[in-house]
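Structure (tokenized):
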């Protein structure tokens, strides 16, 4: 990963590791984040079993030991199998001012171990796992537009998808990141079409065209998405446990919900992870997609701010 100089003043500077793992009937994810210019360290662990999502959050002063993870202490080991080299589109698009100020590295692997859930051991045996390491300025609005600063006048719009897939028998894969405006415009040579679960903004399918070895031989990627894992469980868009917020010298909490009982049009529930399976150039692949669709997106048929998709 290309090294970039650390900032000693930017409040949005982070050093973060995230691991997400999927297996039949379950999902497991962790996030550990350092905010050196805020003096804060925070972490979250989320587990999905049989449609119930349980999440544990912690926050502490950066130069002190973090608190325990309460009833969701994890002993899950991530074993790398190979890098997922970024595609040419895996960079900030649409004139993002963060270009050159953030690096992202992805590594494929497996995850195995046991999670202690309310005193009940839950086994994790995931052949599909992805580790993401981010270093640099993050675009979380909570970090870039802190309290006390006037917000932008225009309502935010974001149609952002990162899709990482690999062939089951190969250690490396393909990563596609796309960030489009309301009319579907973006930089880069990749085209992405997505459908959603009716009444939601949770992905159902992807049809992606990638540059091939020759201009007349593009690569084709078709994927179906599984059940969503709301990133609220890792603190994203959380009213209390958003990363980078000061709580106390040490703070921790646990929460749970049924995913099928969440309001999919609530802004807190739009940002999700999904397991994807399909074909790349006619060969079977599987992987992980992260999606956030906020505001209108004409090519997908999304209207309004958070209104669900209609076929």
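Design, position by position:
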């Amino acid at each position: 990963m290309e090294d970039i100089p650390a900032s000693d003043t930017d409040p949005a500077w982070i050093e973060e590791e995230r691991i997400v793992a999927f297996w039949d009937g379950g999902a497991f994810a962790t996030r550990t984040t350092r905010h050196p210019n805020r003096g804060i360290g925070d972490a979250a662990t989320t587990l999905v079993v049989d449609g119930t999502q349980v999440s544990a959050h912690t926050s502490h002063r950066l130069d002190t030991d973090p608190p325990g993870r309460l009833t969701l202490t994890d002993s899950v080991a991530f074993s790398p199998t190979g890098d997922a080299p970024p595609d040419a589109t895996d960079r900030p698009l649409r004139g993002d001012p963060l270009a050159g100020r953030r690096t992202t590295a992805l590594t494929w692997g497996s995850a195995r171990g046991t999670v202690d859930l309310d005193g009940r051991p839950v086994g994790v045996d995931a052949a599909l796992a992805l580790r993401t390491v981010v270093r640099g300025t993050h675009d979380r609005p909570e970090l870039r537009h802190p309290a006390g600063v006037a917000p932008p006048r225009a309502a935010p719009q974001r149609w952002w998808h990162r899709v990482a897939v690999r062939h089951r028998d190969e250690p490396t894969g393909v990563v596609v990141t796309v960030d489009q405006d309301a009319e579907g415009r973006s930089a880069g040579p990749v085209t992405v079409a997505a459908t959603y679960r009716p009444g939601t903004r949770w992905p159902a399918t992807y049809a992606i065209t990638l540059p091939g070895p020759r201009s007349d031989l593009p690569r084709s990627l078709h994927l179906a998405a599984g059940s969503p894992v709301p990133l609220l469980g890792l603190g994203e868009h959380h009213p209390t446990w958003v990363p980078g917020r000061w709580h106390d010298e040490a703070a921790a909490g646990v929460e749970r919900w049924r995913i099928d009982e969440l309001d999919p049009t609530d802004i807190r529930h739009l940002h999700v992870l999904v397991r994807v399976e399909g074909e790349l150039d006619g060969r079977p692949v599987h992987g992980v997609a992260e999606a956030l669709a906020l505001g209108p997106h004409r090519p997908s048929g999304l209207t309004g701010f958070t209104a669900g998709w209609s076929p």
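Reviewer-requested clarification: Residues 13-139+155-300 form one domain. Residues 145 and 152 are 9 Å apart (CA to CA).
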